[in-house]
């Protein structure tokens, strides 16, 4: 691939996954403060939008709650393997040193950032309403070492698992984090990385909630969690980046970083067996609240060891998105595919997390 093609691919991915454009001067790691400032400005002008509520919506398709007064944001740093790493923390209002709060890691997709992921998922409003701490780490070269071996951090030998553990240790020692309620979610590359964390940090994470992401096939042989990790997954069957049937990332449009991914069916089988769930899953078709050409099927494996249930939401007609959010410009939505208005990913993920502490 020529260097010009790589630049074009990076611009397309940055625009697609997070609704923002790349800026070389502020995005090459040489000016971290300028980059964070510019990211915030980009969020204001190019943020994803959440649709207005419709009559009869269920919790799985509710609009994002507005942040309550009093929540606070902090940009923090730490050094891991001699490299300064950054992350963004959102604290709910009324945080008390004597309390005990859930902690949710939320990982951006390829070419993204923590601040952009906060805006895309709109999780801060949920953190304020339900009383949990949200943290949005930043990947090196705006990517994660998710186990595929094809992203820049993978090629550079970046130990992102070590970074996450260091962030967790720092947050646990700084804030009133409940060690039994620590969770991971993320979109695309961030969803793939959440799967890796379930494999490599099952001592910390009670549950994961990957969105349009799967486990790297290359990492699966070494995925041997020491304890059960509950899983809730959201994927679309019209995703042109992460194939529901498994295979090469960017399989249809050629715009991804490549690398083999496990199929949704393989993930159901792997996690339901690892968590020793009941043999027969229940299948539910969610009600269609908005006639947007999508529908949602829910498969639940229950009766699992330590209560670590496994739930998969499959969106018929759904693309490479964080539903129900839509990107600002029509051409982005055409590239990403449909963002279903019949499921609210953040609501579904938090509801699942709130019911699944570590035993």
Description:
By secondary structure, this protein is α/β, with parallel strands linked by helices. It has a single domain (3-50, 62-354), classed as Alpha/Beta hydrolase fold, catalytic domain (Rossmann fold), CATH 3.40.50.1820. It is 31% helix and 21% strand. It has eleven helices and twelve strands. It has helices at 3-18, 24-27, 32-46, 114-121, 123-130, 152-156, 160-174, 189-200, 264-274, 330-336, 345-354, and strands at residues 72-80, 83-91, 101-107, 133-137, 177-187, 207-211, 230-236, 247-248, 260-261, 282-285, 295-301, 310-316. A ten-stranded mixed sheet has the order 1-2-4-3-5-6-7-12-11-10, sandwiched between helices. Strands 8-9 form a two-stranded antiparallel ribbon. The protein is globular and about 45 Å long. The protein starts with a helix and ends in a 5-residue tail after the last helix. Mean pLDDT is 85; it is low at 1-58.
């Amino acid at each position: 691939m020529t260097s010009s093609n790589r630049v074009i691919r990076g611009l397309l991915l940055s625009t697609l996954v997070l609704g923002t454009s790349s800026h070389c001067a502020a995005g090459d790691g040489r000016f971290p403060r300028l980059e964070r400032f510019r990211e915030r400005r980009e969020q204001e002008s190019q943020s994803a939008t959440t649709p207005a509520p419709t009559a009869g919506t269920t919790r799985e398709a509710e609009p994002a709650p507005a942040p309550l007064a009093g929540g606070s944001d902090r940009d923090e740093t730490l050094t891991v393997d001699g490299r300064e790493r950054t992350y963004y923390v959102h604290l709910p209002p009324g945080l008390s040193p004597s309390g005990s709060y859930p902690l949710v890691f939320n990982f951006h997709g390829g070419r993204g950032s923590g601040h952009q992921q906060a805006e895309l998922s709109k999780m801060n409003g949920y953190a304020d309403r339900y009383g949990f701490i949200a943290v949005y780490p930043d990947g090196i070269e705006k990517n994660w070492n998710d186990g595929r071996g094809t992203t820049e951090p993978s090629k550079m030998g970046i130990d992102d698992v070590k970074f996450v553990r260091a962030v967790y240790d720092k947050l646990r020692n700084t804030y009133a984090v409940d060690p039994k309620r620590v969770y991971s979610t993320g979109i695309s590359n961030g969803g793939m990385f959440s799967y890796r964390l379930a494999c490599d940090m099952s001592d910390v994470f009670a549950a994961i909630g990957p969105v349009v992401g799967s486990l790297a096939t290359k990492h699966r042989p070494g995925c041997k969690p020491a304890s059960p990790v509950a899983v809730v997954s959201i994927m679309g069957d019209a995703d042109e980046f992460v194939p529901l049937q498994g295979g090469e990332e960017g399989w249809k449009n050629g715009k991804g970083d490549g690398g083999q991914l496990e199929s949704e069916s393989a993930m159901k089988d792997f996690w339901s067996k690892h968590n020793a769930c009941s043999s027969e899953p229940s299948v539910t078709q969610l009600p269609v609240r908005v006639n947007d050409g999508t529908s949602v099927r829910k498969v639940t494996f229950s009766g699992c060891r330590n209560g670590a249930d496994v739930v998969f939401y499959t969106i018929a007609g759904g693309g490479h998105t964080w539903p129900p959010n839509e990107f600002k410009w029509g051409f982005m939505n055409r590239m990403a595919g449909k963002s279903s208005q019949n499921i609210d990913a953040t609501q579904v993920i938090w509801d699942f997390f709130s019911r699944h502490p570590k035993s």
